Every structure is written in structure tokens, then in C-alpha cells.
């Protein structure tokens, strides 16, 4: 694959990502995000965010394949970002440590299961839509972000190769910021990749 080519993953084109409101791959035009925030309200906002987060999961499976070439139990027995940040896997009855590649697999499988479940949308027992609730998506996006963080701090060559081909990290962060889905303190990877910013979180993070 030529380094200048883009991976043709689902949702990578402007049209495919959202037919009703085309968004650029990197959200380079701030107006497009502002339009998205203004156009989607209530349950429509939940549906919209769920669709986009699910597309991120699909796209991150490609990154997982890339990481499978360099990330193993022996090389990464824990899911970490910096040396001070250890992530616990929530796929178990009690959150526990997993090797990085298993954590990544569990995270993607869990996110897919949640996003394809009707329970993630705010309905009560009568089926009536309740107040909009983006919290489930914040949990998912925070955990998905950790895949980028691990790749950046431990497999930088793979991270850079993937980002050059997809620009997914820029896309992901712009979307998360626009819809307030990830706290700045959880975003450890610098967007320009020049220096680490954000507060380093200590201890096991779930």
C-alpha cells in the first residue's frame, strides 16, 4: 500500500460517514462539527452519536490488526499508556489486568455489544424516550481512546503508519471534543504528536 493512500474502511469517506450530514475525515472544518451539534437534539443526538461511535469501533478493528503484528503477551503483558498509567479490563466480572492485545480485543467486542443493544438508548419500560443521555457513549469512547494511547506510547511506528493512512486519531479526538465525550485529562496523546499533554492518571483506570 502506498503511504499516500488511505485505508478504505467503512465510514472513511465523507459521504459514507454520515449521509444526512457529511463530515470530513479529520473534521478540519469546524463549521461541520458546529452544524452537527446544532442539528441533532434529544434522541436523534443519541442515535447520531451511537452510529458514529460504532463506526469508530469498526475502524479501530483495523488498528487492532496492525497492533497484532507487534503487540503480544510477552511484549505487553499489561494494558498501559505511560509508565504511570495502567488500565484495568472491565470485560470481567471484576475488573482485572489483561495483556494489552487481549484488552484491545475485549474492549472492541464489549463496545460492539453495547452499541448494537437497544438498551444503550434512553427508553423506559413503556418505550417512551427519556431525557437524552450520552454517558454510555462517554464510557465507550474513553475506553476506545486507550487503544490509541497504548499504540502511541508503546508502538509508535505502528501508530504513525496507521494515522498517516487513516487520520483516524484526529477524527476521533475532534468528534469526542465536539460532543464532550472524553475528559481532557484522559487524553494523553498530543494531537500534533510533538509532546504529551493532559494530566497523567495514576493507578488502574476502568
UniProtKB/TrEMBL annotation:
Q: Which SMART domains match?
A: Mob1_phocein (SM01388)
- Which InterPro entries does this UniProt record tie to the protein? MOB_kinase_act_fam, MOB_kinase_act_sf
- Identify the PANTHER family for this entry: MPS ONE BINDER KINASE ACTIVATOR-LIKE MOB
The protein here is known as: Mob1/phocein family protein
From which organism does this entry originate? Galdieria sulphuraria (Red alga)
Amino acid at each position: 500500500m502506498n503511504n499516500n493512500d488511505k485505508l478504505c474502511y467503512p465510514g472513511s469517506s465523507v459521504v459514507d460517514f454520515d449521509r444526512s450530514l457529511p463530515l470530513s475525515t479529520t473534521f478540519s472544518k469546524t463549521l461541520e462539527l458546529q452544524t452537527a451539534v446544532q442539528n441533532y437534539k434529544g434522541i436523534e443526538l443519541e442515535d447520531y452519536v451511537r452510529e458514529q461511535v460504532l463506526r469508530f469501533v469498526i475502524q479501530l478493528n483495523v488498528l487492532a490488526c496492525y497492533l497484532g503484528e507487534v503487540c503480544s503477551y510477552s511484549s505487553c503483558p499489561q494494558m498501559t499508556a505511560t509508565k504511570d498509567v495502567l488500565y484495568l479490563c472491565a470485560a470481567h466480572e471484576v475488573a482485572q489486568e489483561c495483556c494489552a492485545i487481549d484488552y484491545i480485543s475485549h474492549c472492541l467486542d464489549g463496545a460492539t455489544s453495547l452499541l448494537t443493544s437497544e438498551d444503550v438508548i434512553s427508553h423506559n419500560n413503556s418505550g417512551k424516550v427519556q431525557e437524552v443521555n450520552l454517558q454510555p457513549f462517554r464510557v465507550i469512547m474513553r475506553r476506545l481512546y486507550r487503544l490509541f494511547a497504548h499504540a502511541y506510547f508503546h508502538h509508535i511506528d505502528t501508530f504513525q503508519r496507521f494515522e498517516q493512512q487513516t487520520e483516524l486519531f484526529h477524527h476521533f479526538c475532534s468528534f469526542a471534543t465536539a460532543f464532550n465525550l472524553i475528559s481532557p485529562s484522559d487524553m494523553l496523546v498530543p494531537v500534533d504528536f510533538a509532546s504529551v499533554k493532559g494530566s497523567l492518571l495514576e493507578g488502574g483506570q476502568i
